[in-house]
Amino acid sequence: MTVTDAATGPVETTEARSAALHRADPQLADLLAAEAERRAETVQLLAGENLTGPAVLAALTGPLIDKYAEGYPGRRHHAGCALADAAELLAIDRARELFAAPHANVQPRSGTSAMLAAYAALLRPGDVVLAMSLEHGGHLSCGSRANFSGRWFDFVGYGVRREDGLIDLDQVRELALRYRPKAIVAGSISYPRHPDWAAFREIADETDAYLVAAAAQTTGLIAAGVAPSPVPYADVTVAATHKLLRGPRGGLLLCTAELAERVDRAVFPFSQGGAAMNEVAGKAVALAEASTPAYRAYAHRTVAGARVLAAGLAQAGARPLTGGTDTHLVTADVGPLGVSGAEAERRCAAAGLLLGKCALPYDEAPPSEASGIRLGTGTVTSQGMGEPELAEIAGLIGRLLVDGTNVRVAEGVRQRVRELARAFAGRR
Ligand SMILES: Cc1ncc(COP(=O)(O)O)c(C=O)c1O
Q: What is the first-listed, main subcellular location in coarse terms (predicted)?
């Protein structure tokens, strides 16, 4: 279908759309141009971001963007949904196949709304939930008082061991036996190792709890078989399509056949109205791409790069949590270098290296300062950077943390970051 712009006629191509935006809203067009320039000048190491590829973008901006399709395929509340149904069924079938899941729901608009639906499917307000504490790397949706989760449910937090940074499964079992949670949540925003899904299942069975896998961070690694899958163990797996999976911003729910209807009802009509059908179409494309050998190679390179990054940061004097990583994530204590996480984030951002400050387990610094940084290799690997570049980036970060108040050092790093960013800009 063709959208008609009165001044130009049909607006089909990216260029024509861009020209239409410049005419309609030059102020916003300029902002977007500046954002593109910012991207081209920086090295993006924020763990949850990635680059959306051209095929997914085409689906996102395709005609389903305008379609209202409340409900599910074959059971819609709107007319004209036959092709929207077909697109959603493609996405569902691909998700089920890729993750070997009995049931998939592709409608959640974000990771957090998928978490909301998972809880809604399994719990009642006031129920006890055992999840990783926020201080040790739990997501906002795992009991923050500022989030629905902490308001509506009674969260108990488990954590990692002080000595090795690994999840303390003895503590998980002990808390589960003591508090008898209705659900146990496994998964984190900053834990760089794979949760022991089988052990969590065993504890859930022993205490008659549901097991929810909060797997938004590692969805792509699970799809590629680079991380162990929670799907055979969890009652509900919460995934995200916009991180390593390189799809549209959104969530994805995988569950057992018995829970299928409850999960679907928890998404629509309980927590959402009409799904964004263009996002559903984009998810179908991303899921097809994630089932290719090229994507599996990407996932392997992402983890290999993160290992090099962790080793390089250790060499520079930082302390990677758990001693390294099995994922795209590196969480490191920068205290030994005499800076806070916030200062590390500021210095690196000024030099064009984007990473996040991160409160660490047992952190004594206030959360606004924090002692750690959190980085991920998803975007830079999508751009074609590999182990040599990540070793160099670790060295550049190290120089900034040790000596970044020296203007010449900071300027030298800024220059090199710009070169790296330009050399790999738009590789995807
Ligand atoms: C484990 C986990 N759950 C949920 C989310 C939330 O995803 P979203 O930002 O799409 O709401 C994240 C995002 O970082 C996450 O890491």
A: cytoplasm
